[in-house]
Each structure stands twice: as C-alpha cells, then as structure tokens.
What does this fold into?
Amino acid sequence: MGYVAVKGGEEAIAQAGKLLTYQRLKGASDPLEVRQIQEQLYLAVDRVMSEGSLYAPDLAALAFKQAAGDTLEAAFMLRAYRATQPRVGYSLPHKGEEIRIIRRISAAFKDIPGGQVLGPTSDYTLRLLDFELLEDTPRQRQAFLQALGRDLAGTRPLPLTFPKVIDILRKEGLLAEALGNEEGREKIFDITRQSLTFPASRSAALQTMARSETGGLLLLAYTNMRGYGDIHPTVGELRVGYLPVRIEHPQTGAPYTIGEVKVTEAEVIARFTAAEGSPKFTLGYGLCFGHNEIKAIAMAVLDRAMQAPEPRMPSEDQEFVLSHLDGIESLGFGSHWKLPHYVTFQSDLDRLRRAQEAGKKTKPGSGKDNAT
Amino acid sequence: MPAANSTLATQQAFRILLQALSHPGEIYPWSPSDPGQGLPLMLQTLLDHEVSFAVIGPESDATAALVRDLTGSRLSAVPAADFIIVTRGRSQGGILAAKRGTLEYPDQGATVIYLVESLDREGQAGLWVKLQGPGVNREMRAMITGLAADEILDLQKINQEFPLGVDSFFLDRAGQVMGLPRSSLLEVQ
Amino acid sequence: MRLNAWLQDHRRVKKSRDYNFAFINEAAKREIRRKILKAVAIPGYQVPFASPELPVARGWGTGGLQLTLSLIGPEDILKVIDQGCDGSVNAVNIKKFVGQVTGVSTTTDTRQATIIQTRHRIPEEAMTRDQILVLQVPFPEALRTVEPSEAETRRMHGEADYSQMWLYLYEDIVKYGEISIGARYPVTVNGRYIMDPSPIPRWDIPKLHLAETLFLFGAGREKRIYAIPPHTRVEPLEFEDEKFRVEDFPGQACQRCGSSATFLDEIIDEASGARTYLCSDTSHCDKILAQQEEKEVRSCK
It folds into this structure.
C-alpha cells in the first residue's frame, strides 16, 4: 500500500543494519585493519579529519572503515563524536612559520629563501595505472625501502623552520595588511559555540572553510578562477607539515607544547587593490588539517574573493559561500528528502486540485495549467 | 564534566525555569528541601564561562565570588552583562543600563535574576503585579515582597519597545521562582 | 585547574566509552537551554544557537533532538511521531536513540507523554499545559520564499517589514485564485513575528492558537530555535476577503476508525487503483477504534 510501507518500524531498521554489515563482510578478503587505513590511505584519513573537524587519525581511519570508504559519512561520524567532547581549553595562536615542513613551494618566485622543497607530491607523477601495485609484495616494498635508504646517505636534514615567502613582499610594503587581524585574540569567533551570523568575521569565515567539504569548496573557488570573479591568484606559498599545538600550562601559565598536527597552508597573492594610498597586493589565506593541497588553495582563493567590497559574483558573496560549504549539513539535508513527506504532499495535493478547479471555472476552454 | 547528580539537578531546574517563563506570574516551588540552594542551582543551570554577569545591590562582592566559583562566568559591567543578579530586589535604576538586544538579535538582551523576600498568591504586605501577554490566560496576579516598586516601572520602560528588552526571574527565600519574559504587559496595583 | 579536572575525568570516560546522560555534553545543553528561554520570551523569533552535531544526519530531526535531549529527564515519558505515525522508521530511530542515551520510557499515547517530538504533524488530541511539543524544522525562515539572504530577512523581521511577504501572497491569489501554500503555512505570532510553523499541514495551524501547551521548534542544520508559549495568539496570514482555509476531505472518512474530523492520508489501492483514506495520526486512530470496540462489547452485554 504505497507509502504506508514506510511504517516498517524497528524490525526493518534492524534488518537493514545487518545487510549493511554483510556488504562489508561478504568478500573473501582479510579484514582491513584500521592501522592499514591510517598508514596507506592517509589522504582519505586527512580529508575525513579536516571535514570532520577533529584531529584524530586513528578515529578518522576507523570512521573511514565503518563508512566503507565514503568520506562524507566518515567525516559525519567524526564530527558527531567531536560534539560529545567537552572544550577544556584553547590552544595558543601560531604563525605558519613554525610549521615543521615536509613540503613547501612558491609559484611567485623562481627561487625562495630556504629553497623550494618538493616533498611528497603526486604533482609530477604520470597518472598511469601502476599495475605493479596489484602485486604489492613485501619483497618489492623491502627492495624499494632499501634503495631509498641508500639514496638518503649523505643528505642534509631540512631546517626546522623556513622564512615566509610573503614576508619578502610585506617588507617591501607591497602587501596590504589582511582584514580581520584587528579582531584580536579575545574576539576570535568560535563556530562550534555560536551560530554563524552575517556579516561574519574573518575568523568565522576561515573556520567554516577549514571544516568544509573539499569538493564543495573547490567548486565555488573554481567558479571564481574560471571567470565568475577576477582575483587571478598566484600561490605565494604552499606548505605542508606539522604545526605544534601549544596551550598555557595549567599550573604555570607558560606556553606548553602538547603535540603537533599535520596541516596544509596556502597563501595566495591576488591582484592589487588601490582602495586607499598606494596600490598593494592582497592576500588570501587557507589552512586545513592534514595533507590536502587543493582544499587549502581553494580556501585561500575564496578567502580573498570574499574580501570584495561589493560582492557581485557568488564566490564573493560571504553568506552564499559560507552557508553552503558544510559537507555534514549538505549531506544530511540532501538525503532527508528520502524521508516520507506524505503529509506535506497531501497538503499540496489539496491545493493543486483546488487551483485546477478554480482555473477551470475562470478560464473555460483554456488548456493551460498554471499550477505545475 | 559535572557529576551525574548535578546533570539531573540542572535538568530539573531548567524544566522549572522553562515552565516559569512559559507561565509568567505563576509561582513554582524550586528547591523546597533546601531553599538556600535555589540561587546556586539556578546559576549552575544557566551560567558558564561562555557568558558574562553583573551583580547589583548589597553583598555584591560575595555574590560575584559565588557566581564565579560555581560557574566560571566572567564578571562584567552591567551594560555588557548577559546575566544580572539584583541581590535585594532593588537596583536603584541600575537595571536601566542592561542590554536590551538589537532589532536583528533581540535575544542578546540580558536575563535578570531578582532575589526577593517572598512570592505569594495572597496577602497585603508586598507589591501586587498584574500580568498579561503570551503564556498568560487572560491575566495573572502575583504578590512580590521585597521588590521595590520602581523595579517594575523600570522593567516596563526597558521592555516597552518589544522585541527589545530583558527577561526576569524572581527567586524568593523559600526557594520559589517566578518568570517574567519581556513579552509580558505589567501593571503595579 | 580545569584542565586537570578534565584529564582525570577523561581517563575515566575513555575507558568506559560512556556518553553523557542525554548524549549532549553539559556545556552544549546549557547553551541550548539559555536559547530556549530566550525563544520563549520572544515568541516567534528565531534564536541562533551553536547546534552541535549529533549521530543523526542534519535534516533528519537534529534540531528537534537537540531540544528533546536538553529538556528530558529520567521521569519523562517520550512520544515520537513522523507524519503523525509512531511506527515510521525515522520516528522509531529517534525514539530508540533517545531511549538508549537516557533510559526514559516511551509511549504512543499522546495523553501519557510529557514530551512529544514530531515531524510534520501536531497530534489530533488536545495537549495539556504540562506537556511540551517539540517540532522538527527544516526551514526556520518563513520569509525565505521571498528573500534568500539571511542578513536581509533578519532586517525585515527586526523592522517588522513584511510587505514583500504580503505582496507574494497577493500575487499568489491573482495567479491561482487562492493562496497556493500547502504545508508550512506562515503565521503571525503574538501580533509581531511572521513565523514558519514547520511543514505541518494547514489542518494543524489552528491548534497553535491560544493553546495550553508550549511549542518548541528546532532547526538543527539552520541552527535556530523558536517557540510559541501557551496562550499566545497565532494567526495564519490571510486577507479579509481571502480567508485561510484548512485542507478538506469532502465526504471522506478514515477507512479504519470512520473518523471524518481528522487529517487523512490518501492511499492508492494497489489492485484497484482506487483512492481510500486513513487517519494520519495513527495512535489517535487506534484509540478511537478501541473505544468503539469497547462500546460494542458493552452494548452486547
């Protein structure tokens, strides 16, 4: 009987849950260890941490396993777990300079102080399927690692920190000071504690983008890059590495390092603005958990786009951008249409029938139906 | 994380506050077993380090210390405070400085907690207040002892430009509570 | 010092993998509770709140759940309905989750419940002053139909500038002969705010007016809470010569209990293709049926 079948109730839910679990188990392969996911599918883990807004590689890997590889679902699980955790303190602010680098590049200058560090990147690999991975044997791995070890002999370790590329521009007075710096530490908005209101402060905007869904963020940034907007970004610097996390020591009040988190940071330089005084470059900033370069770049582009004094394009409209980026929200709402809506539909039916009747009375012979 | 019993105590307290604000002018028993616990429980239910507070009236220092210790809330000047505690039912106009919110965000208006002698349905000693508006079936009358008549006049002034205004709770020595949202129309009788 | 306290606590919690009573942590509950009180004090006004994530998807009742979980105590009796039905998968799911994290008892009887969480319906039986109805809200902003920007709708509410909404309704009448809004019919609360009553049918709108019960509305994804206190004027938007009208089911009655004074679901019979009707409020339908059976038993004696 049509919709009434949705009244399946508890039994149906239980059986559906079992079927879901069975999907993961029905193959003959060995169970996937959470550690394997954490170590070998690290980019997926990073993405889940970033969108789930919780730095917890083991839990992110667990969520990825449980969600059978659906990053949206996995990020959702992590976010829900996060919401149960009390806020016990605030970390101290940092400069990106303190990132312990594994990769940093600049597109703005051929050579940069400290040098370009390519690091682990797939940028210059050919995207050819590597059929050797079909047989990913311990022997092959061992051979690779041994060769790598030989290569490393005699190389110098990277310095602990690198100077910032954009500081060159800043020193020469070529860079406009970023908006929002005047907010100060006390005024930092906390999107997990307050609902976003508009106009949103820059701290609120950056937080929202940092936990946003990668694809959605890229899409909006791409509209700007392609022509619905004109910021023409140059990657001033892109960094991947480990940022120390510091808090005030609860007893002494002195800064105390409690660990580090892997982050990607992007600074894009955009065309100059001549609002006041001499023309200067402006900066867009992006930072997210884990190694996710496209997310950091897209974030920086949108950060800059939203600084437009008179928004004309979707990517420049702060409310438009920030209201639609959260993967957990869009996933939930997009899928809620699967829920029964037969009461509202009944109400609409009543209206449509009535409107059709009214249409027949006022326009005899007219074949047009306005109501659809 | 508070102990389980405080979780349940604040849950029950919140339901009473919610009832009180939904039924302005009704008097609700709050903590009959230990009337002295009324204020601490109310503070733990509503305040924490995310909000600020101010205290007006005698013994304001001791009360402020209590609030800080119990909740971690930040002491601030009256015009910035999210919660204002009036210790002896008399703010001498101090309440007029309270936040009333903005037209876009009227919820930013303060919440005022008046500590008074007693709340009653009958008697002559106190101040009779008549209420009308949302939550009230036609009209309600309540007698408040230990509240200056000026306070009601000041609340009328503060709340005359709805939705701007403040919302109040009255807490008496017997541990009873009464709510008074900004939407109520007040009259002193 | 707070950190030390947490560290001790955290070790304990980590081991037991326990969640807090009613799942949401106490600080988040406190924020929701503060916002609920403001919502009650300013009837029909949407209070922004932080809306922490729940293990239920956004759009699946998280706003309602956050309210319920911030209200509920061990003594409460909970009823959850979706489309008027206690047995709908979503209602069952929500009831199961709240049960798991609180241990409260549940019921399908509207009269027995102290808290009722609902999606898209208000129960047919009148509720009392001791009960609270929690409504799940997908779109908290009634003006969103005429204005997509939140900053702008905020301004409109602030200044009670509702001319665009009235113009929209007027144009609707010109186009369709009457206001074409089905469910989610906008109302004015306490003569001040235009409010979205959530996607309840127009049938349920009159139940909001001068009611005995407190109505709380939660929009989790949009992060808004609003309320209608008891004894508050709630008026559907209408013109003097174009009155608000509830759905009608001319000549129809529930196939099961025979009721013609309830909101009905239209059912298409698979075999014959014929249309039949059943009560949308399933527990009310059960009750009527039970009463009839009782009467029959009595008259037999």
